[in-house]
Design a protein that fits this description.
- The chain has eleven helices and ten strands.
- The protein is of the alpha/beta class and about 280 residues long.
- The radius of gyration is 21 Å and the shape is globular.
- The protein starts with a strand and ends in a 14-residue tail after the last helix.
- Bound molecules: adenosine-5'-triphosphate (ATP) and magnesium ion.
- The site of magnesium ion has 4 residues, from helix 1.
Length: about 280
């Protein structure tokens, strides 16, 4: 499988700090959805900032379609048009006077016409369920609304690769489900997705691949089907398998459902595995 974006042996330390990334290597496969999981301070945000050129490694290289990252002004602009990043804190990303203007910023910067931009903005706002916020000043929105605006801004750019730092943090259940649906659809249309998260259920719902981070480096990388079932490995990154997966593993161990098969991604998929119980006896009238 070809890596559309890769980090090779990255080292990075913030000024005066201990290293945030240590010999970190990671491949991102075109058209797949990768979840980056790991505890606070593991280096997830720092890596994402390297993947769109916002930070430059002290050692190592970031390759975009096999080409080393180009940190010139023009190179960075092209890089960010192909690889969009939604920051962990929406306040760091939103600055225009209205939501519509903010979401327009990326497409206009890509050289799209006013009419094309307007259409992109409308589609992105509708996808995130925030069309009604188009004329509002972003600084007067709630945290979750701002998050959706920031995501709409990246989606409107129609990048090849969308990087999202903690995309569901601060979203309510409906907002998170809406976002999962949007990301699934973008994935189906061929967009490569990379997201960091503490929400293991988000990884279960969405990820094809999982990378576990620990102490600024990669502890493990592989298919979601394997990694999300590996309790020992997950615990080394301060995590445990999704509850649904724990139930499935336990049900298999107790003989309540057949051993093997694909990891269930939702409740229905799990319940469908269970050996049907004998029909309830009819109560005689
Ligand atoms: N702006 C900064 N200046 C100095 N040190 C920083 C800065 N941002 C992060 N760090 C440090 O770099 C390391 C990695 O931080 P990073 O934000 O990448 O972790 P993370 O995995 O995204 O954590 P979280 O789950 O809390 O978002 C931490 O030790 C952190 O203290
Ligand atoms: Mg972070």
């Amino acid at each position: 499988m070809t890596a559309i974006l890769s980090a090779q042996n990255l080292h990075f330390a913030y000024p005066g700090e201990i290293p945030a990334l240590r010999d970190l290597s990671l491949n991102i496969t075109a058209g797949r959805k990768l979840a980056i999981l790991g505890p606070n301070g593991a280096g997830k945000s720092t890596l994402l900032l390297h993947l769109n050129g916002s930070l430059r490694p002290h050692q190592g290289v970031v390759l975009l379609a096999d080409q080393p990252g180009d940190y010139t002004r023009r190179g960075l602009s092209q890089w960010r048009s192909r690889v969009a990043l939604v920051l962990q804190d929406a306040d760091d990303q939103i600055f225009a006077a209205t939501v519509a203007e903010d979401v327009s910023f990326g497409p206009l910067n890509q050289g799209l016409s006013e009419a094309e931009t307007r259409e992109r903005v409308q589609i992105a706002l509708a996808a995130l369920g925030i069309s009604d916020l188009a004329g509002r000043p972003p600084h007067m929105l709630s945290g979750g609304q701002k998050k959706r605006v920031a995501i709409a801004g990246a989606v409107a750019m129609q990048p090849e690769i969308l990087l999202l730092d903690e995309p569901t943090a601060g979203l309510d259940r409906e907002g998170a489900e809406q976002l999962i649906a949007v990301l699934r659809e973008l994935g189906q249309r061929g967009m490569t997705l990379v997201f960091s998260t503490h929400d293991i259920d988000l990884a279960l719902a969405l990820a094809d691949d999982v990378t576990l981070f620990q102490g600024g480096t990669v502890l493990a990388q592989g298919g979601a089907e394997v990694l999300l079932c590996d309790a020992d490995l997950l615990s080394r990154a301060g995590l445990r398998p999704p509850v649904l997966v724990e139930l499935w593993l336990d049900a298999m161990a107790r003989g309540l459902c057949p051993v093997g098969g694909d990891m269930p991604r939702d409740t229905t998929a799990l319940l469908d595995r269970f050996v049907p119980a004998a029909p309830a006896a009819r109560v005689a009238r």
